[in-house]
Automatic annotation (TrEMBL):
InterPro entries per UniProt: TAF7 (IPR037817), TAFII55_prot_cons_reg (IPR006751)
Organism ancestry: Eukaryota, Viridiplantae, Streptophyta, Embryophyta, Tracheophyta
Predominant subcellular localization, coarse grouping: nucleus
Name of the molecule in the record: TAFII55 protein conserved region domain-containing protein
Family per similarity comment: Belongs to the TAF7 family.
One biological process term in Gene Ontology: RNA polymerase II preinitiation complex assembly
Amino acid sequence: MEEQFILRVPPSVAERIERLLNENPSSSEDNSLDLSFTDDGRTGTFAIGNESFPATLLDLPTVVESYKTYDDTVLIKTADVGQIIMVRDEGDPAPEGVEYRHGLTPPMKDARKRRFRREPDLNPELVQRVEKDLLKIMSGGAVENIL
C-alpha cells in the first residue's frame, strides 16, 4: 500500500501547481511547495513559491479507495483515503469541526446527514438503569421493578 492524501486547492493555486509540475525544473522562478502543520495537527500552512495559504486537515464522511493501473486493463487498489487537506484563500472562513460534511463528488453533498443512519434518541438514565438490571440478572439477582 502507498501513502496517499487528497489535496483540494482553489483554482488559482491549482493552475500554479500544474504549471510548476509541467515546466522545466531549471527555470529561474521559485519552485518550492511546502505543507506544514501546527502542533494540533489539523491546521497549517500551504506555501507555493513566496505565497502561503491556510490549510486544514479534515476527515471525509466515508473512506475512498484509490486504484492505479499499469496496462489500462487491470486496476490495483493502492490505498484507503479517509482525510482531505483543504487549502483555502486567505479571506475564506475556516471549516467548522474536524469532519468535512461533503464527500469528493456532488452526489455526496451533505452525505453524513442524508445517507447515514441517525443516532437514536435514548435517555441516558434509562440506558444506565437497563445496564444495571442486566448486570444484576447476569450475577443471579432479581430485578426490583420492571417498569
